Amino acid sequence: MTEVAAILTISYRDVLRFLRDRVRIVATLVFPLVFIGILGGSFEANLEASYSFFTFVFTGVYAQNLFQSAAGGLISLIEDRENDFSQEIFVAPISRYSIVFGKILGETLVALAQGVAIILFGLVLGLSLSPQQILALLVTGIVACLLGGAFGVMVLGNIGSQRAANQIFPFIIFPQFFLAGVFAPIKNLPPLLDILSRLSPMRYAIDLTRGLYYAGTDDYSEVVIASPLYNLVVIGALFAVFLIAGTFLFVRRERNR
Question: Which residues, in sequence order, are CB contacts of 163 under 8 Å at separation 6+?
């Protein structure tokens, strides 16, 4: 119960910080809407395909934003380190993994608020969403957030300053927009790009989202790369590796200060 209380307390702190940051709230809600409205609409108008490019971009941007939001939110770990807050937490008699998972859970809750806004925006633009598809988006959104948060811990665990993190992080996230198939299909990539795509964690979150969203539709075979079960297994393995490795790196750097 002590570990659960610690996880909930740390996650609550991150949610509270988000609610007090109006600029961050506006930014997290506006940017995905711009991507969906402009890119999705332009692709739909100018590209010919057997399926709706607007829906394709919508599902991609949805998973990408939740993954990126949760991953980027873990920069607060470095901020806590610079403010010496992390040292105060790590002396508490709780597991280091509980502390890190609490941060991931907090950023997951923050990102899910953005996900709900994206779903509502899709409905406003006339996207047809059944109750099953909305449920699928919410479930896969949670999975994408958890994977993104764990990925953020691993990437940021060994970075020394918040400034360095803000400079390095976009170079790690931005290429995944294209390698993971956010805006365009990636079924027929050149060999080198195909390898890089398979190494992109975001790819599996996006493909899982599309796999459950398009389940039972005629467009499933056109837009989904692998089965949802395969993607879920890969995501589970990546989450475990990222969480363990990221926590180890962060704690080691904290001890060496």
Answer: none
Report the pLDDT value the prediction gives residue 201, as an integer from 0 to 100. Answer: 95
The end-to-end CA distance of the chain, in Å, is 31
**Rounded to an integer, what distance in angstroms lies between the CA atom of residue 101 and that of residue 153?**
10
Range of the domain at 46: 2-255
Inter-residue contact 31 to 174 (CB < 8 Å): no
User: Tokens 């790690």 identify what position?
Assistant: 172
User: What per-residue confidence (pLDDT) applies to 55?
Assistant: 85
Nearest-CA neighbor of 218 among 45, 50, 58, 56? 50
| Residue 160 CB neighbour total at 10 angstroms | 12
Cα 135 from Cα 25, distance rounded (Å): 24
CA distances from 202 to 68, 115, 118, 148, 222 (A): 9, 16, 18, 8, 19
Q: Please tell me the total count of domains within the chain.
A: 1
The verdict on pTM exceeding 0.90 is no
- The SS3 call for residue 90 is helix
Average pLDDT value over all residues in the chain: 81
Q: What is the DSSP letter of 50?
A: S
Nearest 5°: phi and psi at 48? -105, 130
Helices (H), 92-227: 96-124, 131-156, 162-179, 191-198, 201-213, 220-223
Residue 141: C-alpha distances to residues 64, 88, 231, 235, 244 (Å): 9, 32, 14, 13, 22
Q: Which secondary structure element, helix H or strand E, spans residue 22, and what is its range?
A: helix 22-34
